[in-house]
Amino acid sequence: xxxxxxxxxxxxxxxxxxxxxxxxxxxxxxxxxxxxxxxxxxxxxxxxxxxxxxxxxxxxxxxxxxxxxxxxxxxxxxxxxxxxxxxxxxxxxxxxxxxxxxxxxxxxxxxxxxxxxxxxxxxxxxxxxxxxxxxxxxxxxxxxxxxxxxxxxxxxxxxxxxxxxxxxxxxxxxxxxxxxxxxxxxxxxxxxxxxxxxxxxxxxxxxxxxxxxxxxxxxxxxxxxxxxxxxxxxxxxxxxxxxxxxxxxxxxxxxxxxxxxxxxxxxxxxxxxxxxxxxx
Length: 280
What we know:
Number of domains: 1
Radius of gyration: 18 Å
CATH class: Alpha Beta
Mean pLDDT: 95
CATH topology: Rossmann fold
Strand content: 15-25%
């Protein structure tokens, strides 16, 4: 069984939806307060995927995700190491990390995304939406052709909700931008309903560089996005869910966001099966 660890605490507030997404996708999911890891020595290595949910960690009072990232980066565990060091060991074992919205901001501030240099140092940042306000509605996302992220396998264009005030990705370095594009690390882009990538508001809710809605690292093991796939697990989560049902009564009941979780759970299960066969 695939085991998913979902962090909570300090203003995170989407942990229940994220855990539900993994359970619907066929995994076990445990919600654990960050202090249980930082102070009590809870073992994250018993899990296959570590998740940073959305919310407002530390009230977003100092650059969204920054305070939580610093706690993970510098707080010394009882073992004498840091949680960031443990996450790096977690990834070295071939495991996966996902961050959504505020969790994506944390991964960016930690340097886990895009991590082109491999040194886990912050390379990009996120700032306030160009609209100057909090955006809470559905948008469309386009998967970058050729991305090696297992979270996005087989997906093309899909709808998910956005719920953020600081989702504008800024890449203040032309060479870094070139490398992100060349390696297809800008794995998700904002687009219109036809799949045309756009910088135009409102289809692009924040004005992000490259119209980027999500990043992965070069290994494909770390994935983060600003929109909330865990908030679209049923077609009735969509604001036009009733209309969509009438237009296509045979459509499945599950929401489009669930595909991301099915993908990664299937990928990890296959990895575990291959490892077990190799040992036997």
